[in-house]
Amino acid sequence: MISISLDYKQVLPFVSEEEISLFEKEAGLHKKNILNKTAKGSDFLGWVHLPEETDEDTLGRLEADAQKIAARSDVVVVIGIGGSYLGPRAVTEALSETFPATGNEHNKQPPEICYAGHHLDEGYHYGLLKYLDNKDYSVIVISKSGTTTEPAIAFRLLRKHLEAKYGVRGAAERTIAITDARRGALKRLAGEQGYTTYDIPDDVGGRYSVLTPAGLLPIAVSGVHIRDLVHGAKTMASHLISNNTLKNNPAATYAVIRNILYRKGKTTEILASYTPSLFYFTEWWKQLFGESEGKDGKGIFPAGVAFTTDLHSLGQYIQDGLKNFFETVIDVEETHRIVHIPSDPENLDGLNYIAGKRLSYVNAMAMKGTLMAHVDGAVPNLKISIPSLNERYLGELIYFFEMACAYSGYILGVNPFDQPGVEAYKRNMFELLGKPGSGS
Ligand code: PA5
Q1: What's the whole-number average pLDDT of the chain?
Q2: pLDDT in the model for residue 440
Q3: Residue 102, pLDDT above cutoff 70
Q4: Which contiguous run of DSSP H or E holds residue 9?
Q5: For residues 292 and 207, is the Cβ–Cβ distance under 8 A?
Q6: Which of 21, 198, 226, 431 could be disulfide-bonded to 178 (CB atoms 3.0-4.6 Å)?
Q7: What's the longest Cα–Cα distance across the chain?
Q8: Domain coordinates of the chain in residue numbers?
Q9: Which ligand 1 atom sits closest to the C-alpha of 179?
């Protein structure tokens, strides 16, 4: 039984139930094509059965390696970009404590996770190398192709730093490479240097790779329980795969509604959450939908906001600006930590009317009030609720969006699994840099 739910009541002033049900047959057809691998991009449908295929041996090996890495490292640097970066960061940041734990120094805390190779900023990488001078650290380098410029440069920098600090052999022992099973420069280097390696399956694209070792190893290192994460995804997969009607398939329903709204001129979707630790989950979602749908001159632009912070910046535009968007809210129903608002005898700030209430109650009222205001302001609103933030529910949510994205791309009429547009900047950059063979 799945635990997350989709509420589209606040879309019904803009889209009727009848309009949604007109997609029943088409959604069924897309599902058949996804399961039978007869749809566009079918070489990249390995993610569909991935949760059920992730066996005990794989999980055990990932957990054992994660423990080994964590035990010898104050810091673990995860190198990667796009799908080889956003998945691990999304889950790690959603499920880790925001502030380092204090008061229990005898229990070893998970290592600090730093990221590299997700951009080309010199100051950032300079600062990271300096920071690592005085830390014991390991490196997880993730690149499916093994040839992407940003992570390749970062790995070259980190490898030199590691070798200077621990020697060539020590550096190799502290490096884990996650890449293609056969091809690419990283695969070759890993073989030569004897790094521990994990494969990213051929039939799983970068933005769908969070439940492969590319996501699971760094996530496990951060102390998150990957078994529960995979279990959550498996629960959602079996629900979506075994239910045939739109009514029982929230991923297909979400995909249908977004496409109806798109056809009515709502060409941007804003994903909103009131939980700051979901910031990178929103970034992951933006990549998933942006890279999957934005092609052939079409596609819903995926934007993200972090409320209530952004109510004091983008809130004005959402309420009163151009009405070419709809909003999808991720509602985390219960928080783990409890903070009550204290009473104050002087009450100069006028807050005594909420004294004794939990902060999460005020946050929930902010969400309710905002949702009502946005619907009044002609913004169609979808709500995806998850009971709380834990591995199981996040696993469900990940698979939900992955499947929804596949349906949505097919309804839009594109191949959701390629990304030809990403090559354009690379071609120009390589020419400008004078890369041999680039045509400069
Ligand atoms: O989703 C994708 O395929 C891309 O975002 C890739 O993940 C990204 O370009 C990084 O590629 P690679 O893992 O080959 O270094």
Answers
A1: 95
A2: 59
A3: no
A4: none
A5: yes
A6: 198
A7: 74
A8: 5-41+229-412, 50-225
A9: 13
The response to whether residue 83 sits with its C-beta less than 6 Å from ligand 1 reads yes
The C-alpha atoms of residue 9 and residue 15 are separated, in whole angstroms, by 10
Domain 5-41+229-412 sits in CATH at: 3.40.50.10490
* Residue 428 banded pLDDT, cuts 50, 70, 90: confident
Q: What percent of the chain has pLDDT over 90?
A: 89
**Segment 104-122 mean pLDDT:** 87
Statement: residue 3 has pLDDT above 80: yes
In SS3 terms, 51-84 reads as HHHCCHHHHHHHHHHHHHHHHCCCEEEEECCHHH
Give the residue with greater pLDDT, 426 vs 90. 90
Q: Using the mean position of ligand 1's atoms as its centre, give its distance from the Cα of residue 323 in Å.
A: 33
Which pair of structure tokens corresponds to residue 422?
């990403």
CB-ligand 1 contact for 206 (6 Å cutoff): yes
Topology match between the domains 5-41+229-412 and 50-225: yes
Cα-to-centroid distance, 117 and ligand 1 (Å): 12
CB proximity list for 396: less than 8 A, separation 6 or greater: 2, 3, 4, 232, 233, 235, 236, 386
Q: Is 151 in the pocket of ligand 1 (CB under 6 A)?
A: yes
Is 212 a pocket residue for ligand 1 (Cβ < 6 Å)? no
User: Domain 50-225 is in which class?
Assistant: alpha beta
Which strand ranges, in their side-by-side order, compose the sheet holding 75-79? 112-116, 75-79, 137-143, 175-180, 196-200
Across the range 185-203, mean pLDDT stands at 95
Distances in whole angstroms, Cα of residue 412 to Cα of each of 4, 7, 408 = 25, 22, 6
**Residue 426 is among the residues annotated as catalytic for this protein:** yes
Question: Cα(330) to centroid of ligand 1, in Å?
Answer: 26
Catalytic residue among 93, 291, 327, 391: 291
Residue located via tokens 């423990």: 67
250: left (phi over 0), alpha (psi -120 to 50) or beta: alpha
pLDDT of residue 103: 58
Provide DSSP, 401-416.
HHHHHHHHHHHHTS-T
pLDDT band at 252 (very low <50, low <70, confident <90, very high): very high
